[in-house]
Amino acid sequence: MYLTTSEIDTERVALTAYDLWKSYGNRTVVSGVSFTLNPGEILGLLGPNGAGKTTTVGMLYGAVVPSRGFVQLGQYQVHSQGRQVRFSMGIVTQEDNLDPDFTVFENLVIFAHHYRITGKSARKRAGELLELVGLQDYAQRRIDELSGGLKRRLVLARALINHPQVVFLDEPTTGLDPDARQDFWKLVIQLKNQGCGVLLTTHYMDEAQRLCDRLILLQQGKVIDEGTPDQLIERTVGKELVEIEGISEDILQQLATQYGTWYRTFGSNYLIALPIDNPQALWKELNTIPSVSLSRRSTNLEDVFLRLTGTSLD
Whole-prediction pTM value? Predict the structure, then answer.
């Protein structure tokens, strides 16, 4: 049964995606995707290439019209009330698309005009945002004087010009060095703490694990799992894995059956999960096998993807 606008608690839910489908001719690329995003929550939408992430995100902010289903942002339907929705969201894409003909400050002031923020109000808002993202000392710089990390901060500031309820971050730290990524993460967490709902797509597993309160995993246009990073890791791959080199798959299959666990190929090697209830038993037996190389480690989100999809997120 379809939800209606009146059935959505717009005070507790920032964004609702309900039964989203998208087809191009006979090819269906998104199938029945549903989830909610709460105020003050960072939700990660993850999946390998071709999983339907780009199409799904496009439907969420109104760039792609769903074949079926609906998206609601606050009290507004995204695809039938686009004008109102535009004033309630901010979008950070992979491209900076900043205007090189204007200064950092001018880029924000001019962008504010798109949201009917003009004059003193626009200048005040631009100043507030430059301080928020730590660019106040760069206000009069030209865009080509900024590093990649500083440009990313400016793009985020621009997305916040209209005080959005929801911000979409589409691969926001692609190409940044580790220090710039860490700086950007701090700003995203600050948004969350201010009550903004944030939807993040990323190929960086450390980014998803560090930032996201909850994750939606997509494969072939469908939601295959969701939960907190810790929940997904523990229930999907356990707590510890062993990477093994030089073992036959027949022996590994026997051990997996004997100990009630799972294994996967990992390049030219194998991964096998240590049972949560008794990890030492399997570990000891692996150490009795001659001529194998063993490496024991904690599990992570990359392992979740490897097990669920048979591929990494890259």
Answer: 0.89
